[in-house]
Amino acid sequence: MHLEEVAVLVGHAECVWHASWSPDGSLLATCGSDKTVRIWACARNGATHWDCVATLEDAQNRTIRACEWSPNGQFIASVSFDATTVIWERRGDVYEVIASLEGHESEVKSIAWSPSGSYLATCSRDKSVWIWEADPDTDFECISVLHGHSQDVKFVQWHPTDDILFSTSYDDTICVWAESDDDWYCKETLKGHASTVWGVTLRADGERMASCSDDTNVLLWQHQPGTSADGRPTSWQPLQALEGFHERSVFSVDWHPTLNCIVTGGGDDGLRLFAQDKAESPFQLAYTHAHAHAGDVNCVRWSKRDPTLLVSTGDDCVARLWRLVA
């Protein structure tokens, strides 16, 4: 398998941090240091030409670090270094701010909608994770502030089917959060990386997870209840370490929606594909694109509607679209 570049999305004036596909795959949102969210639509069959159809701006006054579509495609949430989270509602071709959520004391780094759309999670340099409840009348209320990390929290991701939340941090750990009787608690802290954990991704069935780190490695985890050396219950066990394939930090990782394949991007400007030959065989390097961007690769995301389509964003101020060729 390999990747073929099919389009370059030019429009951001500075570094592009993040990208998010709309649920139906027809739109792509990107955000960056220029304090904007841009909405892109495919203008031709084959995904070779995309137009910027909307620019969301003037709602946040510092870098927009991440943006995510809601599961129903009606909202986009964006988080910023100005410590705010802004909720945009899509009304046809128009996007309107309906809420600005405040509470974090420092830069907000990541945002994630729960699979049902009932919850939002945000995380910050202030070392906390906030969980917000989104009810049908578009009120957003913080229902829990989680303190489980000792340093900057970099990334949040929900389990694909359950209300379980994962957060990663500058403290080199992954926290697994669950809810019991309306209280959220850290049920497990995963250790294995030697430096900042930049992100995680879960397989569609939620049984396996990959994490990426400043230590240049990717770790694979298996959902398997067990007991730790000190007698505590555990739910995730280390499965495999992918070491030595990136020369610098691995900033982003994403599990393919239908294949046992993951993509990574990092500070060496490159993309890597790892895949399994058979269901239970180890992951192996399947493809390397050494110079995918002219700078750090900050985000990689597969389209769930068209699983052959991948977006990557970079410090070179562009988003690039790639076609997976088997």
TrEMBL record:
InterPro entries: CIAO1/Cia1, WD40/YVTN_repeat-like_dom_sf, WD40_repeat_dom_sf, WD40_rpt. Keywords: Repeat, WD repeat. It holds the Pfam family WD40. GO terms for cellular component: cytosolic [4Fe-4S] assembly targeting complex. It comes from the Eukaryota. WD repeats lie at residues 9-40, 57-89, 101-133, 146-177, 190-222, 290-326. GO terms for biological process: iron-sulfur cluster assembly. PANTHER family: CYTOSOLIC IRON-SULFUR PROTEIN ASSEMBLY PROTEIN CIAO1-RELATED, WD40 PROTEIN CIAO1. Essential component of the cytosolic iron-sulfur (Fe/S) protein assembly machinery. Required for the maturation of extramitochondrial Fe/S proteins. Belongs to the WD repeat CIA1 family. This is Probable cytosolic iron-sulfur protein assembly protein CIAO1 homolog.
